[in-house]
Amino acid sequence: MRSSRVLAVVLGLACSASALPAQAPDRSATDQRASANLLGIPFGVVSAEYEQMITRELSLGVGAGIDNNAHSWGEAKVRFYPGAEGPRGFSVGVTAGADRLRGFTGNDCIVICADGSGPKETAFTLGVVLDYGWLIGRTQRFYVGTGVGAKRVYGLDDEQDTNGGFITDYPEVLPVVRFQIGYTF
Is 70 in contact with 120 (CB distance < 8 Å)? Predict the structure, then answer.
């Protein structure tokens, strides 16, 4: 009789313990992320990202964007999350893609000329990004992420004589700044 009570208690605890993880947020439901750079819109930059977690430490993603000078880009990204909680926490990543950009038409330009003059060229880019992401809200699905980095431009001449008769200098390194807001699913 005593052993049947012990067995009943053990079975009851085992059943209730197996039900507890189902009440916690389902982490397998956060293997994908879609987000946009909403802070960039007032500055004339529209960009978005999609990320798929391969493991808790590694993800593959794509990103694309355009700015008010018609500088556009598309890239693939691989991110490593050392804390093994991706897409939450610190990550370091590499990017490879293509940028379509305008060259410098004078010494007043910082990265991309704002006057829209100058020829457009397409170049291959390789870059590095350092990011940090938060999953917030009751269901831990609302994503906020920020990051910085740089990408090197390959395949463009440093100086080019155009039909207009002016010299165009293309940037060799482009800064990467991101502030993403999105949703995980």
Answer: yes
pLDDT of residue 104: 55
Nearest partner of 103 among 174, 172, 170, judged by Cα: 170
Inter-residue contact 152 to 175 (CB < 8 Å): no
pTM of the model: 0.73
CA-angle at 123, arms to 98 and 130, nearest 5°: 50
- What CA–CA distance (Å, rounded) separates 175 from 83? 26
* DSSP assignment letter at 104: B
- Cα distances (angstroms) measured from residue 123 to each of 71, 72, 172: 11, 11, 10
Give CATH for domain 31-184: 2.40.160.20
Q: Measured between alpha carbons, how far apart are the two ends of the chain, in Å?
A: 50
Of 175 and 15, the structure prediction assigns the larger pLDDT to 175
What are the φ/ψ torsions at residue 45 (nearest 5 degrees)? -115, 125
